[in-house]
From TrEMBL:
Family per record: Belongs to the UPF0702 family.
Location within or outside the cell: Cell membrane
Descriptive protein name: DUF421 domain-containing protein
Species in which this protein is naturally found: Victivallis lenta
Listed InterPro entries: DUF421 (IPR007353), UPF0702_alpha/beta_dom_sf (IPR023090), YetF_N (IPR048454)
Pfam families xref list: DUF421, YetF_N
Keywords: Cell membrane, Membrane, Transmembrane, Transmembrane helix
Membrane topology recorded in Swiss-Prot or TrEMBL: Multi-pass membrane protein
Gene3D superfamilies in the cross-refs: bsu07140 like domains
Domain YetF-like N-terminal transmembrane: 26-98
Domain YetF C-terminal positions: 102-217
An example Gene Ontology CC term for this record: plasma membrane
Residue ranges crossing the lipid bilayer per the database entry: 23-42, 79-100
Amino acid sequence: MYTICRSKRRRGNMFDFANLGDIVLYVLPKLLAGFLMMLVYIHLSGKGALAPVSAIDQVGNVALGAIIGGTLFNKGETVLGLVAVVGFWAGLLLLLRYFANKHMAVKTVIDGDSIRLMKDGKIVTSNFDKAGLSVRDFLMLLHQRGYRNLDELRNVWFEYNGQMTVVRKGDEATATALVESGEVNEKNLERLDRSREWLEEELKKHRAKLEDIFCAE
């Protein structure tokens, strides 16, 4: 006589979604905790977290969502573990955002600088490698913004968030911050072909101190 034995596959840490008890016991508490953590993070970081303007914001938000999603359906992860990991990652993002807003050098390291692709109607070929763009990519981005010919453009910058700033010939110059939170933006001074000495003279004319200025263009 032969006996047939059926082996049961191990389910590991995965849930049995046919079992309502698994969902109520494991998923819902972590889902609620993750939702509350996201609300706290959005409240502390401001509405900028909903519409990120830099690469670190975008990557950070994607990673934050992946952390929450990855722990929801894993029985080995507890609610406290979820709160700890999400809290650590959100805290790191908030810390980076704080120092980037307070210190220009930190912001430059994290976000990078704008890269000039056209100057006075001429293409700056040496900057295309810095921007990681080919000529085809450059033209595609311009076409998407409604610019058909290079002849109509005066200045083009590739911004640190992947967008492009375009100034046509005959248009007024775009606003450029020369002082941010009491610090001189040397890159923007160079962008306008101005010197630090010129800026200091302008501040003297207005009887303003550099450390007292939040923003000057």
